[in-house]
Specification:
20% strand; alpha+beta; 8 helices; 7-stranded antiparallel β-sheet; 281 residues; 11 strands; Jelly Rolls; 4-stranded antiparallel β-sheet
Length: 281
């Protein structure tokens, strides 16, 4: 694979901006998975995510002031009466307006947004949720445990609505799987540049595979505003989540599935050989 100008700024994977691993894993079932996933999403219970990335401090500095409002910033600006109305739409632990300085809502908190809260934040307060279709097929309780499969299983909904997808995920070269999530973007939506891991905080690249049964989701990597974006053009890939990554806007629904876990040792060796065989970026 060739790298776009400016891609040398990326941390990358094994010397590449990202790795297309589809030559190592059979993806011929993808049309079947696409039909199953898009049909199943008509019945599945999904939620929205990504609305607090700015508040969490994980977005690229140059997108902070892009005009898309963070949900927690909207909450922090609410009056006491507005806060009470908003809190009443939740199903988490009881809250007191007097304790508002300690309130935390959304991803990676003990008060995830309910569908009603997302709707209120979006329609009244202008908050932006990049992924309005998010579905956990295999749930993790904390970000830190997303690579551990201990005590975890696919949800009953995933087994009922997405059996072929579950079989494909189970066939992937992991010794354990800690999280499986479908991320979908509505037409014209985008995902802001953000990173999941801060450089220097991890000893190795987080092991995960992402697959998109239908082409078209333009995930891109960019670590500096002057660098040209590197668009990930692969049906099944591994990227370094220490790199800032986002999704470009397009006029159609797009989605991918991310699987986090621990790679099988034989696969690690195969992927290392595969990386060495590719042209140096």
């Amino acid at each position: 694979m060739s790298a776009a100008p400016g891609a040398a700024r990326l941390w990358g994977v094994l010397g590449h901006p990202y790795l297309d691993v589809s030559p190592l894993i059979d993806t011929s079932v993808f049309p079947v998975l696409d039909a199953e996933l898009t049909r199943g999403l008509t019945r599945a219970t999904t939620n929205a995510t990504g609305g607090t990335l700015k508040w969490m401090g994980v977005v690229a500095p140059w997108v902070i002031d892009d005009g898309f409002r963070d949900a927690m910033f909207a909450i922090e600006a609410m009056s006491p009466d507005e806060l009470r109305e908003f809190a009443a739409l939740g199903d988490g632990p009881p809250v007191l307006v007097e304790d508002r300085a300690t309130w935390r809502f959304g991803d990676e908190t003990d008060r995830p947004f309910t569908a009603a809260q997302v709707r209120l934040l979006s329609t009244r307060y202008g908050a932006y949720f990049p992924w309005k279709v998010c579905l956990h097929l295999l749930e993790n309780e904390r970000w830190e445990d997303k690579h551990s499969g201990a005590g975890k299983a696919f949800t009953a909904e995933a087994l009922a609505l997405f059996p072929e997808t579950v079989r494909f995920v189970q066939s992937l070269p992991f010794t354990e799987i800690g999280r499986v999530v479908l991320f979908g973007l509505e037409p014209d939506d985008h995902a802001p540049l953000h990173r999941d891991t801060e450089p220097g905080r991890a000893l190795q690249v987080a092991q995960s595979l992402c697959f998109q049964p239908r082409p078209g989701k333009r995930l891109y990597l960019q670590n500096a505003p002057e660098a040209a974006p590197t668009i990930v053009d692969a049906p099944l890939y591994w990227f370094n989540d220490m790199d800032y990554h986002g999704v470009l806007s397009d006029p159609v629904f797009r989605y991918s599935v991310r699987v986090d876990g621990v790679f099988d040792r034989d696969f690690v060796r195969s992927i290392e050989r595969h990386a060495r065989s590719q042209a140096t970026p």
